[in-house]
Amino acid sequence: MSLIDWLTPPTVTTVNPRREVLAGITTFLTMAYILFVNPAIVGGGFELALMHALDTNTLSPQYQALVYTVKLGIAAGTAVAAAFGTLLMAFFARLPFAMAPGMGENSFIAYSVIPAFTTVLLNMGVAGPEAAEVASWWR
């Protein structure tokens, strides 16, 4: 059994390389937005938790750099999770489905869990910036 035969789902009778490449590009372009939106959502929740922990309305450049670093980490994690889920579907389920983290759960975590966890850490005596940073690690 050749690699192409093994990778082709049982219901597909013919494989057209041009069609497969076009389908892959279309799927990537359809899902690529999550690489930008997901860090903005979770990073926004982290930024709000950090401002609340510091009891301020604006962040200093040092804390803005921290928020930027958290957003980069979330973008990298989103890309790795999407690649892992898609490869899992490709090689184990043998289906051409792309998988990525959902934005609904990320919104819940960003605007409910991270601020609540930061508040709990503040009540335990952890300093404001450290509490927000630990809350973002939990994600």
Characterization of the model:
The structure is a single chain. By secondary structure, the chain is mainly α. Helices cover 76% and strands 0% of the residues.
Would you report the number of β strands?
0
Strand percentage: under 5%
Q: Which sheet architecture does the biggest sheet show? A: none
Helix/strand order: HHHHHH
Mean pLDDT: 82
Look at the helices and sheets and give the structural class: mainly alpha
Number of distinct helices = 6
Radius of gyration from CA coordinates: 20 Å
Distance from first to last alpha carbon: 42 Å
Shape: elongated
User: What share of residues is helical?
Assistant: over 70%
Spans where pLDDT lies below 50 across 5 or more residues: none
Report a brief summary of the structure.
This protein is mainly α.
Give the secondary structure arrangement, pairings included.
Layout: H1 3-7, H2 17-31, H3 34-54, H4 61-93, H5 103-123, H6 128-138
From the structure above, extract its key features.
6 helices; mainly alpha; single chain; 139 residues; elongated
